[in-house]
């Protein structure tokens, strides 16, 4: 069984820098839909939605051209998915820095060493894209 999984894993097409950059651009467009005034936010804030948990946006760092934020839900004393990302306002890009303080998804996956840094970066940013889709579908309002 492991050999079959390994073959499937290795047969996957590697990601390119262009694909990763397109994901950065897509995520920038989605964050602007979710939080249209994110460029003006100077403090942490909470998005309300009546049927689910509030969505928290924490501002960690803000400069003229960039911002570092964490977007998460709070469950008792746990923040999940705790997605930390950087926005490049001048380049119109969003890059995922970590998810739940991890810099890789599936860190214990047996074939992780076969993935390039670019592929691992793509996985993090793909997760962020899907998270933005979820938040937009839930109609959170900041």
TrEMBL record:
InterPro entries: DUF1249
Name by which UniProt lists this protein: DUF1249 domain-containing protein
């Amino acid at each position: 069984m492991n050999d079959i999984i390994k073959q499937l894993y290795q047969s996957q097409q590697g990601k390119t820098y262009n694909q990763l950059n397109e994901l950065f651009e897509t995520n920038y467009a989605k964050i602007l839909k979710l939080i249209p005034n994110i460029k003006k936010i100077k403090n942490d804030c909470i998005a309300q939605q009546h049927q689910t948990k509030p969505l928290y946006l924490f501002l960690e760092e803000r400069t003229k051209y960039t911002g570092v934020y964490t977007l998460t839900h709070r469950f008792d004393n746990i923040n999940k998915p705790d997605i930390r990302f950087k926005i490049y306002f001048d380049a119109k890009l969003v890059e995922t820095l970590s998810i739940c303080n991890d810099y890789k998804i599936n860190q214990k996956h047996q074939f992780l060493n076969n993935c390039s840094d670019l592929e691992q970066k793509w996985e993090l940013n793909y997760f962020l894209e899907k998270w933005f889709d979820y938040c937009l579908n839930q109609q959170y309002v900041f």
